[in-house]
Amino acid sequence: MTTNALVPSSLCREAEDKREATRKIGYVARAATVFGVDRLTVFPDPDGAGKLDGGFVETVLRYAATPPYLRKAVWDRRDELECVGVLPPLRVATQTGSGSDDSGSLRQGIVTEVGPDGRVRVNCGLQHPISLPVPDDRTVAEGERVTVRVSSRRPVRAKLTDEPQAGFQVDRADLDTALARSDAGITIAASRHGQSLTSGRLGQLIGTVDGAGGDLTVVFGAPERGLPAILGVDTESVGSTTVAELAAADDTEDGTGDAVTGSRPDGTRFDLWLNTVPNQGSEVVRTEEAMFATLAPLTLTE
Length: 302
Prior knowledge:
By secondary structure, the chain is of the alpha/beta class. The chain has helices spanning 18-34, 54-65, 68-74, 175-179, 199-211, 227-231, 243-252, 258-263, 287-298, and strands at residues 3-8, 39-43, 96-97, 104-114, 119-123, 130-133, 145-153, 156-161, 169-172, 186-196, 216-219, 272-275. The chain has a six-stranded parallel β-sheet. Strands 3, 4, 5, 6, 7 and 8 form a six-stranded antiparallel β-sheet that branches. Helix 1 (18-34) packs across helix 2.
């Protein structure tokens, strides 16, 4: 099961300075971490660009997603990172295993040296870089990020593993490409113009997501520039698909999700336009606020 979140390159369009923009991005990263987002994608919104472009947003998100013990090794001094001191700590939960041979925590590392003997030196935040053998079926390059399972610290016992890294990955892609990924699953546009989320509809929607394989993609707009404005879509034409219709389409395909992701009767890119703050008391819900309000219910289980 994969949870994807997409935010526009115009995310910081209303920020007065780099410090405010960095803090805003930090709360986006916090939301992604708290609710277990696997991939956070920045999609282009050139018409809504402010002082800071999508490159700034992507760089700060990548920095935030880098474990603190690796940041110095991975990142040089860059103008985009001038105010990263205001980023809130993500405190990504440590992944542990239960097997007697593989017990211990997963840590991200960076390869600092590749030796001629099939071994590499990896900086993974321990007191010193550690020397690890490379599996026969794998090639590792200097500077590559890897996942290390540490089973003991005194003495140090660890190995390279193909297990996924904790936290979220960051990339940049256009919207159509991101929505066409094999793990996009049910695609939802978070918008005040979508169907209001209610307690009754929530259970139905979660069941639909689970029935379609558990993959979910949620797309968010920018401050004072929602998804209809970004996509050039008339607000009257969005939200025609209801949660009930989405669930019915899923039922017709025996839970495969083909009918869901292939129909989109409202003629847009999404399976569903959803308003997760139906009684908002503010004229504008900021992107980071919308992420908390939307991901909290959508990541519940039945």
